Amino acid sequence: MFALFKWVELFASWKEFAAGFGVTVLVSFIALVATLVISVTAGLIRCSGNKIIRAFLLGFINFFQNTPLVVQLFFMYNVLPRFGLMLSPFACGCLGLSLYTGAFGASIVESAINAVPPGQKEAAYSQGMNYMETMVYIILPQAVKIALPPLTNQAVNLIKNSSVLEMIAGGDLMYHADSWASDTQYYGPSFVVTGLLYLSLCLPLSKLAERLQKKAARK
Question: Both ends of the chain: CA-CA distance in Å?
Answer without folding.
Answer: 48
